[in-house]
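User: I'm preparing a small set of examples for a lab meeting where we compare how different chains pack in three dimensions. I only have the primary sequence for this one, and I'd like the structure in token form so I can line it up with the others. Please keep the answer compact; I'll paste it straight into my notes.
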Amino acid sequence: MIRTAPLLLGTALVLATVALPATAQVAGAQVPAAQTVATYGQDHAEAVLGRELSRQITAGRLRIEFDNRAVELRAPAGAGSLTAENVYYNPVSGRFAAELVVPGTKPAVRLPVAGRAYGVVEVPVLNRRIGTGDTISAQDIAWVEMRADQAGSDVAASESDLVGMTPKRGVPVNQPVRLRDIQSPRLIDKGALVTITLSTPSMSLSAQGKALQDGGRGDVIRVVNTQSNRIVEATVAGPNLVAVAKPGVPTY
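Assistant: Understood. Below is the structure token output for the 252-residue chain.
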């Protein structure tokens, strides 16, 4: 099972106590008969390692995976709180190694551990297949976790990145969505007649044009004024409606 290490570690570790039979051996340390011992399990190990690794892994919520799932140390009760020593972390591979140590024990109670550590973030995904031309709604979105170092700027990070968009091509269900695979729904088809508008504080003009490119809301496309035959760049403002930002738009 994958465990997630808490980022806030203010709560003191809780130590379980058990009675040992006579001449019991505790992690290499001989203890008297019936003496209680403290048991440090995987939760304790994740807590102390998380405190060290969170200094290097700052993106997302820290997750720790041990190579050995049976992480446990036992020491005489009252020996001290579990600590981590000789902590090593490779940010490229995500591998870590460390020694878990119980201070104040003779011989020292210690356990070498290794595994992977990385940050995770939640990203929106499609919970059903959406066809090209269909608009994505909030009801079409679910959330999944992915590694923070794999969630680059080309991955949809918020619901607003998806709602109102349409897939350019098939987008897998329950998988992170690449922004290059979605677009605004097409409001203008190449070759369609469009209304070109120009608005300033002192005037408002319109003219008929022809689209030279497809476009969705907010896209900048080229259109030709059918009266002057001038080609201008305009922003798609609605179905077959484009807006020129200001006079003096470059011609081609």
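A couple of notes for your slides: The CA atoms of residues 17 and 181 lie 56 Å apart. The helical segments are 42-53.

User: Perfect, thanks.
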